[in-house]
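A quick aside before the break. I want you to see a complete sequence-to-structure record at least once, exactly as it would be stored in a machine-readable document. Don't worry about memorizing anything.
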Amino acid sequence: MIKYLLYDHTGTRTTTNDDIFIKIKDFCALSPKEEVILLQILHSAISSAIAATDVHTKTRTKRKLGADETEESIPRTLVQYLSGLLKKFGPVPDAASTVLGLFSW
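That is the input. The structure line, written in C-alpha cells, reads:
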C-alpha cells in the first residue's frame, strides 16, 4: 500500500494522447482526499499489526523466541519509506500529520 501511495498518479494527466492505458491510469488516479484516507487506513493497519504482535507475545519466553524480531521488522520496513512519504505528502497538513503518526509507535 505504501508503494501505491508513493506512485505519482498525476504524471499522465497533462498528456493529450488517446492511448487507452493512459485513460485508464488517469481514471484510477487518487484525489488528494482519497490519498489522505488511504494513509489513515495504512496507519490503522500498522497499528493493528503492532498490537497483534503484542497480544500474541504475552509471556517473556515467547517474546525472547522471536517476537522481538517481528516487532522490529515493522518499523524497519516503514523507515525505508519515510522520506518518500514526507516528500510527497509534506505540503498537505492532514496527510503530513498522518504520515508522522505512522512512526509514533
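Two observations worth writing down. The chain has a mean pLDDT of 76. The chain has five helices and no strands. We'll return to this after the break.
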